[in-house]
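Private note to self, pasted from the team thread so I don't lose it. Backbone tokens:
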């Protein structure tokens, strides 16, 4: 057995703020449960005190230089603010490291394309953190999917005091955008969007109505100024109606039985989506498998999110003219 075969696979996290601290927790758990096959090697963050606390807790080291961090890991998640995704993920990919970057993949489509091309050139995994694709609820939906005709999503939350650099479309709605594109798999032919700022200079509430070439309509609503938290999807198709709750990991199927509607509970084996997402990334990186959400799929979700955002900004400008 060669040294490369006996060495542990080294993982790390760049950015341990509100989201990244949970990446660190899960990486620590993955390493502890791997019997030495995986090592949680390093944390990169500009806040050394926060990074040091997590590093001590989970057995990693804190690195303040990004190039040095890249040299100490084989794969890393990137959970820095969106504006830095291109820079941080680019340095890692350029050194031949596998990367999972949180959504949205980048601020712009040219930046996203640059990361996709760099990953291809370096033969590296590039996964995008669209977490709901790993929610056990979605698996149940996919198994029952048969030509959806109408999809309705609601993603509401109180103001999070984070992601201030982006609006609610890129912050929250993009999750549902990516899922709808994944489920419908047909060309988009029309977008109608509205949104308003409430607590920030960007839209904090938004609605988008999407029309696809196969006739499917999707109506997406997102708010980050709601008094309640909600993450739900409803899918109507010819043979049934599915109502699923990402947050509670529960759901119901409604079917027509003669002149009655019967309800059947969906049996879901609950689990933590982020844990499943990061574990899948580590496995893909170690084995060279295609990620569930590739860089290209992340870029397509970004493309539509930016189109919706641009339409909202145009409508706002017209309203104030």
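Design output:
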């Amino acid at each position: 057995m060669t040294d490369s075969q006996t060495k542990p696979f080294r993982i790390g996290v760049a950015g341990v703020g509100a989201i990244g601290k949970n990446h660190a927790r899960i990486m620590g758990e993955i390493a502890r449960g791997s019997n030495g096959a995986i090592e949680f090697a390093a944390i990169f963050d500009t806040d050394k005190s926060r990074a040091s606390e997590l590093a001590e807790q989970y057995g990693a080291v804190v690195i303040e230089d990004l190039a040095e961090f890249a040299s100490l890991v084989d794969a890393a998640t990137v959970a820095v603010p969106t504006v830095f995704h291109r820079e941080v993920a680019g340095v890692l990919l350029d050194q031949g490291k596998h990367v999972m970057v949180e959504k949205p993949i980048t601020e712009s489509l040219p930046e996203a394309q640059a990361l996709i091309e760099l990953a291809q050139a370096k033969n590296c995994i590039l996964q995008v953190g669209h977490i709901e694709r790993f929610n056990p609820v979605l698996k149940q939906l996919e198994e029952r999917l048969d030509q959806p005709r109408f999809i309705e999503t609601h993603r509401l939350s109180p103001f999070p005091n984070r992601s201030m650099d982006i609006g609610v479309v890129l912050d929250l709605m993009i999750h549902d955008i990516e899922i709808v594109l994944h489920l419908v798999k047909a060309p988009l032919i029309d977008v109608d969007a509205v949104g308003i700022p409430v607590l920030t200079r960007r839209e904090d509430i938004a609605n988008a109505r999407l029309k696809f070439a196969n006739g499917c309509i999707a109506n997406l609503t997102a708010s980050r100024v709601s008094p309640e938290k909600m993450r739900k999807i409803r899918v109507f198709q010819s043979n049934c109606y599915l109502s699923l709750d990402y947050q509670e990991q529960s759901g119901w199927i409604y079917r027509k039985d003669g002149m009655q509607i019967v309800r059947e509970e969906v049996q879901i084996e609950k689990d933590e989506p982020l844990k499943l997402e990061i574990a899948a990334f580590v496995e893909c990186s170690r084995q060279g498998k295609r990620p569930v959400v590739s860089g290209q799929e992340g870029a397509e979700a970004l493309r539509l999110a930016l189109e919706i955002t641009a339409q909202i900004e145009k409508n706002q400008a017209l309203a104030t003219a």
